[in-house]
Specification:
Rossmann fold, about 270 residues, globular, alpha/beta, about 40% helix, single chain
Length: about 270
């Protein structure tokens, strides 16, 4: 494992009054950073009494570690989350999206976790199965992703990739901001996910788990979400009409409300 960077970007929103609710750590997916939680989820959960934190993993956003991102593995990202968790006043509940959900699962496999919400998760079969499906059904997608250079985006690239991550209803201002937070991803982490290292779990996790996806998601399709839920012994929640980046969709409150209801149940 690599040594953790000295400076990790953390975005936070705190409740207006003292609270006994546990802190939440929001973990972003691949190719993006902590910003994705800031427009809606961080302020909403803070307004409901949960201290809400989102970190940019090493080499993402304003975090250090960009020069060694290509060497970073899944356990290095786990170390980043633990670095933030160790600074909080109480053990946090983890909320991970896509690759971030895989980080949560890796943590559940190796240490006690208070609880984890897995949004649009990488399925039990791993990232390789996802890539094979996308290559077969959407042959224009994989070439664009394999050659992705966030500093040199073309209109053709954006036209191909947009439907895989956002529904047609997402506001143009959100899309413009999302482009500014697009990053390269660690090839080693992608390899780890292809080897299913996130899935080194007991048959039934001992931590409370929520599994949620969107029926309009072309990346984590409903079958993937159901497969993850079956492994954890829970029922999947599928939200209608939303895309992969469900925290930025116009109906984001529906997703937030499901998470809040689950949080209330497990406290």
């Amino acid at each position: 494992m690599l040594a953790p960077p000295y400076d990790l970007e953390v975005r936070s929103r705190l409740p207006a009054r003292p609270t006994r609710k546990p802190p939440l750590i929001f973990i972003h997916g691949g190719y993006c950073d902590a910003w994705c939680w800031e427009p809606h989820f961080l302020p909403w959960f803070a307004s409901k009494g949960w201290p809400a934190y989102a970190l940019s993993l090493r080499g993402h956003g304003a975090s250090d570690g960009g020069e060694t991102l290509f060497l970073a593995g899944l356990d290095d990202y786990v170390a980043d989350v633990e670095h933030l968790a160790g600074r909080l006043a109480a053990p946090p509940i983890l909320i991970g999206h896509s690759m971030g959900a895989a980080i949560c699962e890796r943590m559940m496999a190796t240490r006690p976790v208070r609880g984890a919400a897995l949004l649009a998760p990488v399925p039990p079969s791993g990232l390789l199965a996802v890539a094979a499906r996308l290559a077969a059904k959407h042959p224009d997608y994989m070439p664009q992703m394999m050659g992705l250079d966030p500093s040199r985006l073309t209109d053709a690239t954006l036209k191909v990739l947009r439907p895989f991550y956002f529904s047609e209803r997402v506001e143009p201002a959100i899309l413009r901001e999302a482009l500014e937070h697009l990053h390269g991803e660690s090839p080693r982490v992608l390899f780890d996910l292809s080897l299913r290292l996130h899935w080194a779990l007991p048959k039934r996790a001992t931590s409370p788990v929520l599994v949620m996806g969107a029926d309009g998601d072309r990346i984590a399709i409903p079958d993937d979400v159901h497969a993850t839920a079956r492994h954890h012994g829970v029922e999947a929640t599928l939200l209608p009409g939303m895309g992969h980046m469900l925290m930025l969709e116009p109906e984001w409150k529906e997703a937030a409300a499901v998470i809040a209801g689950w949080l209330t149940e497990i406290q």
